[in-house]
Write a structure and sequence with these properties.
Layout (H helix, E strand, L loop, with lengths): L12 H12 L4 E5 L5 E6 L5 E6 L6 H14 L11 E2 L8 E4 L5 E8 L4 E2 L8 H18 L30 H16 L1 H5 L3 E4 L8 E3 L8 E4 L6 E4 L1 H11 L6 H15 L4 H28 L10 H11 L4 H11 L8 H9 L5 H4 L7 E3 L13 H4 L2 H14 L3 E5 L14 E4 L2 E4 L2 E2 L2 E4 L5 E3 L4 E7 L10 E8 L3 E8 L14 E2 L4 E4 L3 H4 L5 E7 L12 E2 L4 H7 L20 H11 L14 E5 L2 E4 L4 E4 L12 H13 L9 H11 L6 E7 L2 H16 L4 E4 L8 H5 L2 H4 L11 E4 L15 H17 L6 E4 L2 E2 L5 E2 L4 H11 L3 E5 L24 E4 L10 E6 H7 L13 H16 L2 H22 L3 E7 L2 E6 L8 H13 L2 E2 L1 E3 L5 E4 L7 H15 L8
Parallel strand pairs: 12-13, 28-40, 30-31, 30-32, 32-35, 35-36
Antiparallel strand pairs: 1-2, 2-3, 3-6, 4-6, 5-6, 7-9, 8-11, 9-10, 13-17, 14-15, 16-25, 17-24, 18-23, 19-20, 19-22, 20-21, 21-24, 26-27, 27-28, 29-37, 33-34, 36-37, 38-39, 39-42, 41-42
The structure holds pyridoxal-5'-phosphate.
Length: 1013
């Protein structure tokens, strides 16, 4: 309710304090609170107790006051999980007092207990669990009020959905677009009058808006703790209360229906809903919104300057615009599903009928003479489908299908029901869900793969419902839909897609068809735009208002509903279309890992991902959801880059052996690699991993100098072999580490943001530590083997070396007789954009460079490149044999990777996109000061979360990475304090990807959990 607010009625905080003391004997400070009817104050006493003081407007209806008080009294002890405000009696033991204000008006004053919590309107984000909790809270109140009766409850009230017809008089307040929406729902409301009249009735809260719901304090799992303000309670259809909760709580959600289902589920848990109620719930949500916007439109005229009154108008209209696009039947089935019912009410009876009317391949395609089905896996993770460039090549796929058919002449490939397919994992099938993007990948029909022009025969009696030449959508071709009757008065549809053009005239709409009648034929590939002729066969229990066509794929998150609307065609089929065998559940995969793989293997994210495919900057999970990968610098030129894949496949088909035979590829790769390096670095050794490369580099340094003492950075990481762990402070100083070996000497992490020296000028100060270590060793009579370092320290938290550090450090090391080893495992192959190798940024030339991750684009390929002098001393007679290192397959892959970097201009791309991300991050740093530092170069970036005292915020960083994963962006944290978010994506990361990253970051930074810094 929103009556006008007159300033002379206002109560000051001083007045509130004295009213509290005079009438209730409670002394405390008064803090004004929002309120539409009453003037509300929080009274806070010196011993930290709180109460709510409510002062009425003049002319209070005592029946109304009594009604509200009785509700509160009734609720005491009736709710188990919710706290309900208690009435505090006045000094005389009455639930309220009256007083006369300065204008001689009698006012009423009441006191209620205070409930700790924050208003729903201040909580961000509203997660699914909280929606569920709201549902439970609403259900609990509804349940508790079932036995409540009061004469005032049966009042005339505009906010009561049952009485919504008053809005008919206000159509003139809306523009034409708004009118379409209002009249659409109003017509349905009028048409449903009888149905609505028969629904259960009771007193309901009737106003669970954002400011009447209290949520527990900031925790990872906030819950609704109370629903307050029963001022709008009314006797009406019970289901209206749920409709109202939904109407407010799903505003501003990209997918309001999906959000509403959590509320329905929670509500049903506490108060069992009836089918008749669920049937109209979608309509009732709309009606509440329409009441709200009509009242706003009217109030706008009465009080044009009162913004409070208009507060929910915009989001209410926005939701109405979304809600009208939600099919009411789909909503009904979804609500049923949320309540644990079978989504489509006819599904069980259909299943029984269908089992009695089986048919098979020989009924549909008798001319083929085929009676057996075989199966090809076309799911997202199918190795038969292979790369996108393969399965989008129509000629190639037609060839492959036909080769299969030739090999299995007595069978027909039948597949696809509920298969999640990679064809649909593209932007054309994408929508914004409540947690990032979703893809409509789950196939709702069965496909029969066979020759074009094969005649098609009706498997059941029916009537031609529609014939449609779907030539706008090249992927579909002509479609015929037949309608069939079953049981008494029930019907279902069978859809036949990818037909030939000639099928358009074989039969006509409305024509009766008998089982076994020829009514169309399969389209040739060029007629239906597919790789290979096939029939898409789908069963549909409800056309959901569609006439010619019907969605053939659904969002996996909605699959329970869609598989009920489109039941499994296998129920009819005598030859079953098998599902791919590999349908292992996530839990089974985790269980096996736990039991049989090393406990020291970790999984990323609180909710681990099951990835089955990679494409460019994306990883794709087994449901076909794409995740933007900002972490994986191994997939240097993009996940499964088609040229790299082909190069590896081609060489693998020909030869893979060790380096003891002559082969051109090892020379070519060496040549290609050396052309990116200074001429001093001229000898290559191929190995299989970054660790192996560093192990070999260390061995070379030991061998060259005859020494074992090495300098390395604090928090540095160089690999998992014994020697590498020995120079990796990240490991030996980390969890499970045994501390520094005596031959390792640590240089402080040259962190210019939070390190021991800060600012841009501190390079020399850090370099002085190198010199100090060397002097200390010299004083002990020791010499060194060398210094191993990254030029941007990755595990250390993307720490860029300060200017002047490396050149001075190199000088000192060399003066002491040591070698300089640059570990380019993370930073190499052009990632920084400006240079091929990160050491080049500092104008130095190492004695040894180690290269790993990016060189093989995910294939195990690494290299050690050194000077002639180092190489010659290493080749002391002992053979350097490496079974796999430098094999032709690895080399073919490495050659292609370097070619792609060059030919696709990926270094330039890294520079351009890296700079865009850097500047965007710096921009949002102003908006979100929790971002303490932004750093890096090219596509090797990082940002650090700190509070105002530069203290690291690990909790927020972990939250951010996990939330970003939920929103479809993969990020990882690192650094000694786990508060640095690393950005080192595949080098094909483009502008659109950068925008997506920044947009999602902004979204998550706005969330409550990120504001705690
Ligand atoms: C800087 C650096 N060096 C070496 C390695 C070891 O490489 P790999 O895991 O290929 O053995 C890593 C791995 O993360 C690394 O980050």
């Amino acid at each position: 309710m929103a009556p006008p607010i007159y300033s002379h009625l206002q109560i000051t905080t001083d007045q509130a304090c004295s009213l509290s003391e005079i009438h209730f004997g409670i002394v405390g400070a008064a803090i004004p609170l929002a309120g539409e009817v009453d003037f509300n104050f929080r009274i806070k006493t010196s011993d930290e107790l709180s109460y709510i003081l409510k002062v009425s407007r003049p002319g209070m209806d005592y029946d109304y006051v009594d009604f509200q008080l009785k509700i509160l009294l009734h609720l005491v002890g009736e709710t188990s999980e919710l706290t309900v405000p208690k009435i505090i009696l006045n000094k005389e033991g009455n639930p309220y007092s009256t007083f006369t204000d300065h204008f001689g008006e009698v006012r009423l004053v009441r006191m209620l207990s205070w409930i700790d919590g924050r208003l729903w309107s201040t909580v961000h984000p509203i997660k699914d669990e909280l929606l569920y909790s709201l549902g439970k809270a609403g259900g609990e109140i509804t349940m508790a009020l079932q036995s409540f009766h009061h004469p005032f409850a049966k009042r005339a009230f505009e906010w009561d959905i049952d009485q919504a017809l008053w809005i008919e008089n206000y159509f003139h307040l809306f523009d034409s677009d708004q009118n379409i929406i209002v009249s659409h729902f109003l017509k349905k409301f009028i048409a449903q009058k009888n149905h609505l009249g028969q629904l259960r009735k009771s007193v309901i809260h009737n106003d669970t808006n954002d400011n009447n719901i209290l949520v527990s304090d900031k925790s990872t799992h906030p819950e609704v703790v109370s629903i307050i303000d029963f001022g709008d309670a009314v006797y009406t259809s019970t289901i209206n209360d749920l409709a109202i909760s939904i109407a407010y709580a799903v505003m501003e959600k990209p997918d309001p229906l999906a959000a509403s289902l959590h509320i329905v589920k929670g509500y049903h848990k506490k108060f069992v809903l009836q089918d008749a109620e669920l049937k109209v719930l979608h309509l009732l949500v709309a009606m509440r919104l329409i009441i709200s916007v009509t009242k706003s439109a009217r109030n706008k005229i009465a009080e044009p300057n009162n913004e409070y009154l208009l507060i929910s108008e915009k989001p209410a209209w926005a939701l109405l615009r979304q809600w009208i696009d939600v099919d009411e039947h789909l909503a009904y089935y979804s609500f049923r599903n949320a309540c644990g019912m079978i989504p489509h009410p006819n599904q069980s009876s259909f299943n029984i009928w269908a089992k009695d009317h089986p048919f098979g391949i020989s009924d549909l395609f008798p001319t083929t003479g085929i009676t057996e089905a075989s199966h090809i896996d076309m799911s997202v993770g199918s190795t038969w489908l292979g790369h996108r460039v393969d399965f989008t090549d129509n000629d190639l796929m037609a060839c492959r299908i036909s080769a299969w058919t030739k090999k299995h002449p007595d069978t027909m490939v039948v597949n696809g029901y509920l298969e999640t397919r990679p064809f649909y994992s593209t932007n054309a099938y994408r929508k914004e869900g409540n947690h990032g993007p979703l893809y409509r990948t789950a196939h709702l029909g069965v496909d029969f793969w066979l020759d074009g022009h094969t005649p098609l025969f009706a498997p059941l009696d029916g009537v031609v419902f529609s014939i449609y030449n779907n030539d706008q959508d090249k992927d579909y071709g002509p479609t015929i839909i037949l309608k069939h009757k079953f049981g008494t008065e029930k019907s279902f549809f069978t859809l036949y897609g990818h037909l030939s053009k000639s099928s358009l005239v074989t039969v006509s709409v409305g024509q009766s068809i008998t089982k076994g009648q020829h009514f169309g034929s399969i389209g040739q590939a060029d007629e239906n735009g597919n790789w290979s002729p096939h029939l898409h066969f789908q069963i549909i229990l409800d056309m959901l208002g569609n006439i010619h066509d019907f969605p053939g794929v659904a969002f996996p998150s909605e699959i329970d509903i869609w598989k009920s609307i489109c039941p499994d065609p296998n129920i009819f089929l005598t030859q079953q279309a098998l599902l791919p065998k590999d349908q292992l559940q996530q839990t089974e995969l985790i269980q096996y890992r736990t039991n049989h793989l090393s406990g020291s293997l970790s999984l990323s994210y609180a909710e681990p991902l099951h990835i089955v495919r990679g494409e460019g900057a994306y990883l794709i999970d087994k449901t076909g959801r794409r995740y933007l990968d900002t972490v994986n610098n191994v997939a240097h030129v993009g996940h499964e880059h088609p040229r790299v894949v082909k190069a590896g496949q081609a060489q693998m088909a020909l030869l893979n052996t060790n380096t003891r035979y002559l082969h051109a590829s090892i020379n070519q790769l060496a040549e290609s690699l050396l052309s990116t390096l200074p001429p001093e670095l001229c000898v290559v050794h191929f190995v299989n991993s970054g660790s192996e490369a560093n192990e070999l580099a260390l061995r070379m340094a030991y061998n060259f100098t005859g020494q074992h003492d090495m300098l390395a950075f604090e928090v540095g990481y160089h690999g998992n072999t014994n020697a590498c762990i020995g120079v990796s402070s990240y490991k030996f100083d980390g969890k499970g580490g045994k501390g520094k070996p005596k031959e390792t000497h640590l240089v402080p992490l040259p962190d210019t943001y939070r390190g021991i020296y800060r600012g841009t000028e501190c390079g020399l100060k850090y370099a002085a530590h190198v010199e100090a270590i060397l002097q200390q060793l010299a004083s002990e009579g020791k010499k060194i083997a060398g210094f191993i370092h990254e030029s941007i320290i990755s595990c250390g938290g993307q720490i860029e070396l300060p200017y002047g550090f490396l050149s001075n450090a190199y000088q000192s090391i060399r003066d002491a007789g040591g070698l300089c080893i640059a570990d380019e495992v993370q930073t190499g192959c052009g990632r920084l954009g400006s240079h091929w190798w990160a050491f080049e940024q500092h104008g130095v030339i190492p004695d040894i460079v180690t290269i790993g991750k990016p060189l093989g684009n995910g294939h195990p390929l690494a290299a050690v490149v050194c000077t002639r002098a180092v190489a010659d001393r290493f080749a002391n007679g002992m053979e350097f044999f490496n079974t796999f290192g430098g094999n032709p397959v690895s080399c073919a892959i490495g050659i292609e990777v370097l070619k792609v970097v060059r030919e696709e201009g990926l270094m330039q791309n890294a520079l351009t996109i890296g700079n865009v991300i850097l500047s965007d991050l710096k921009m949002i740093q102003d908006e979100f000061p929790i971002i303490g530092d932004v750093r890096g170069a090219g596509l090797f970036l990082g940002f650090e979360l700190t509070d105002e005292n530069l203290c690291p915020l690990e909790k927020q960083s972990t939250y951010l990475a996990n939330r970003m994963r939920t929103m479809g962006v993969l990020m990882s944290t690192d650094g000694p304090d786990h508060n640095v978010l690393k950005i080192k994506p595949p080098m094909v990361f483009n502008h659109e990807n950068a925008d997506e990253l920044i947009t999602r970051l902004r979204q998550v930074f706005r969330e409550d959990a990120m504001q705690d810094g």
